[in-house]
Every structure is written in C-alpha cells, then in structure tokens.
TrEMBL record, chains A, B:
DNA-binding residues: 50-69
Keyword field: DNA-binding, Transcription, Transcription regulation
PROSITE patterns in the record: HTH_TETR_2
Sequence segments annotated as region (Disordered): 1-26
Gene3D superfamilies: Homeodomain-like, Tetracycline Repressor, domain 2
Domain named HTH tetR-type: residues: 27-87
Pfam families on file: TetR_C_1 (PF02909), TetR_N (PF00440)
Family matches, as InterPro entries: Homeodomain-like_sf, HTH-type_TetR-like_transc_reg, HTH_TetR, Repressor_TetR_C, Tet_transcr_reg_TetR-rel_C_sf
Protein name per the record: TetR/AcrR family transcriptional regulator C-terminal domain-containing protein
The keyword Transcription regulation is annotated on this UniProt entry: yes
Length: 241, 241
DNA sequence: CACTGGAGTTTACATTGTAAATACCCATGC
DNA sequence: GCATGGGTATTTACAATGTAAACTCCAGTG
C-alpha cells in the first residue's frame, strides 16, 4: 500500500468473493489479505486472529502472508486503514451538503456507520498508536483529514477554527463510538466471563445504582449520539464567531 | 480483592518499597502483584508485560503469580480496577464541593489526573470489555458510579437526569482522555516505527494539512479539555431544567 | 533445454500462557 | 528430637504463537 490505490488494481471486478473453501487459487495480494483480516475479526474477534488462522482462512500457510505484510502489528495497522477507507467512500458517496451543519452531520454519521458495522475493530481504530501525532483517532487517514479540512474551508472556516473543530469532532466521535461499539461487541459474544474475580456485582450494596438499573441498561446510543452531535454543532457555531 | 480493603492489610507501613532486587522476601499477595503490574506497564508498556517478566520483577517465578491471580486477562482487569481505585481516593480526598458544577469539575479532573499519570494503562481502562453492560468506561468501578450518582442526587438531580449526565460525562472523559493518553504514550517511547508501510506521510500532497501543521502538532490538551468540560457543564445545566 | 526469479511451503526456534507435579519450609503433633 | 502437613514457590512440560531461513515448485525466458 505504498502506492496508494483507488478502486483499481489487479481485481476491480469480482470484488469480495473469496470463501474459506479456496476458489481456483487466485494468487495472494495485500488487499485480499487485509479484507480477509477485517472479515475475520468481524466474525471471530481480534484475539482469535493469528497468522496461521488467517492463512488457513485464505487457503494458504501462515508464512505466505509475510510476502505481502511485514508482520502482525502492521497487518493490524492495515486493517485500521482499510476500515477507515470504507469511511472515505461512504462519505463521498453521500452527495453534497448545503451547509456546514449538514456536512458535519454527514461525516459523523458516516463514522458511526463504520463503528456499528465493525464493533470488534473499532477499539483497534481507537487505540492503535497514531502514525503521526496529530492524526487523532478515530480519524486516522491523511486523506480523510485533508478532505475534512477542505470541506470546512469551503464553508468559510478559518484555518485555526478548522483545527479546533477537527479536534472536538474527533474527541466526540471517539468517546461516543468507542462506548457504543464496546457494548455492541458485548451483545454478540460474551467471550469468557470475568466475574468472581475482583468484581462480584452484588447490587444490593449500591442503592443509587439499583434505583436506576433500568435506565442504565437501556442502550439508547443513537439518541445520545444525536443529542451530543447537535450539541457539538452548537458549540462549533460559537467557535466560528 | 473480594474482600475490599482500605489502606489496611499485611502492610500498612512501608508502602511501595519492593525493588527488583528482592528484599527480605516478604510473601506475595494480590495487592503486591497488581501494584507491580501497574508499575511495570507504566514503565515498559503493556506489550512487554508477560507473566514471566512480572514474576521476575517481583523476584519470583511466573507460576507463583497464579496462586493469587487466575490468569493474565484477569490480571489486566485487576490492573484497571487498581488504577480506578486510585481515582476513588483522589476524589474523596478533594474536599467537598459547594455546587454540582464544582463537583463535576473535581471528578473530571480526578479522572484526567489518572489518565495523565498512567498513559500506557488508560487505553486498557477504555477498551476492556465492561463487566456490566452499563458500567461505561472509563468509569468502571461500581463504587465510583454509586458515589457519583449519590453526589448528583445530593445536588438535587432527579434519577433519570443523573443517568443522562453520567453517560455524557463518561463519553466526554473517554474521548478526551483516550486521545490525550495516546499522545502522551507516543512522546515517551516510540516503540517500533510503523512508517513505510501503508503510510508514507508525504505532506506535500495534502495542502490543507500542511497549512496548519503547527496548530495540529501543538498539544493544547489541557485547554481543550477545560473548554469541553465547560461545555458539558453548560449542557448539563440544560438537562436539569 | 537449463536457468532464473518469484510464490508458497517446510522446518525450526524462541517466547508466550498455563497445567501438573514436585520441592521447600515452617509450625505443630508427639 | 523427629515426623507430618499445609501452604508457597519452583520445575517441568506442552501447545500455541510470531517469524526467520531454507527449501520446493513452477512459469517464462535465453
């Protein structure tokens, strides 16, 4: 991926059609590997992803992957980048906005879509060490940041304000979506119960919590997200002054 | 940690004085192990923490740890809990507040203090699967949540509002602090450079970014944190209505 | 045909988490 | 004194992992 590629490579047509039961043995390539990794984590969770298993998933021995990927850590970086590129596509597909408010809304929803679609991957997106110190998670793509800043510029934001907005925006998305994806993941699996060590959730000794258990349980993430987003936009309005 | 303990146990005096070069061989216990783990991660990073190395750090073989801790995963849960207990102490030490605004400020700053003190651990705090679905990171302690809700109650918040505030508060802290701690970690080490794969940060093709590199670099986390906090409080004011 | 270079495999090894068996030690029975 | 026993730490062992190095296989070129 040194040579950045749009949707053009050795395989434009026939996208996403490799099954676990190997097809006619198309030769490996980086994209195939990354896509397989994304899919694998989505299904089995990050902790189950090993080079050997990913290899098997692609009908190949583990070591074959190393010709296309420097190592596991970098593979994970690639996964993050891959997922965020999904975002980039979503975003640009969404038609033009008529106001900066709409623009921010669209961007926020696009990121949330990703987070909801890949709850097992999103924590990775959020915690991987940033490749540049000012590339704040979850917005890790230079291309994305560039286009975002451009967008703000087009709506008349001055550079300094744009940066501030970018920061608030990133913080907001990170907080909301990391929480939501964490919960989503939970619902899916429940891999290994950690109770009984350190934490015996005996609510009886926590009266305030018991009193509102119902409200606490209820996800309501979407509502909360929208509310916080509205609020952020409000805040940006002030920044613009 | 089933029997929760304040500062009282086999060792009240002489706190934190175990060096790598074993002392007179005090017998192991869970607290010692957890504290050692926290310290170890602070210094060497999570990825370097192995049972063997932690053992060595305590002057003991790896397997000795298993008498006090079920396994590595649970050890990490314990680390999180340990760090968050630090928060609990900080918070209660801080004297009483005279308004709910002050109260929220104090809590927020307490959490931030932790995040800044343990940047390598905070991502763990943020991403570990929650032991209860409504225990939102980074506020993972039942005790803490209970006391927080109690606090709000004392300032006249109605239950439903308290829950909403708790959520917004958690989201805000998670976003801000995860970003900040991520950056802090970066400055400390730089363990393994991931450049040259997927990401050759050649700014020349990103004009908007280049134009504001300076502003982007500059941390300014504290300022941003305070601003966002003010804003949250503003928002809570509205919620209270 | 021999040959060369790339794609995938085999083999190998150090490191990890952890189970099971063992050795150690100190306090109590006589 | 010595046996004994219960808890604490060590030893040994093993399967799983990431990855280096050598190897096999084969298509395409001279």
């Amino acid at each position: 991926m040194d040579d950045r590629m749009g949707p053009a490579g050795t395989e434009d047509v026939d996208a996403d059609a490799e099954a676990t039961t190997a097809g006619p043995r198309r030769p490996l390539d980086q994209m195939r590997i990354l896509r397989a990794a994304v899919e694998f984590i989505d299904v089995n969770g990050l902790s189950k992803l090993t080079m050997r298993r990913l290899g098997a998933h692609l009908g190949v021995e583990a070591m074959a992957l190393y010709r296309y990927v420097p190592g596991r850590e970098q593979l994970l970086d690639g996964v993050v980048e891959m997922v965020m590129d999904e975002l980039y596509e979503t975003t640009n597909a969404g038609g033009l906005s008529t106001s900066w408010q709409e623009y921010l809304q669209m961007q926020a929803h696009a990121v949330r879509t990703i987070a909801v679609k890949h709850p097992r991957i999103f924590p990775l997106v959020a915690t991987r060490p940033p490749s540049a110190p000012w590339l704040r998670p979850p917005l890790r793509s230079l291309r994305w940041v560039e286009s975002f800043l451009q967008g703000l510029h087009d709506y008349g934001f001055r550079p300094k304000v744009s940066v501030a907005v970018y920061r608030s925006f990133a913080t907001f998305l990170l907080g909301s979506l990391l929480l939501e994806s964490g919960t989503l993941e939970d619902l899916t699996i429940t891999e290994k119960v950690n109770l009984a060590f350190i934490e015996d959730d005996d609510l009886s000794s926590y009266p305030m919590i018991s009193a509102v258990t119902e409200e606490l349980k209820d996800g309501g993430f979407e509502v909360e997200f929208e509310a916080a987003l509205e609020d952020l936009i409000e805040r940006v309005t002030v920044m613009r002054s």
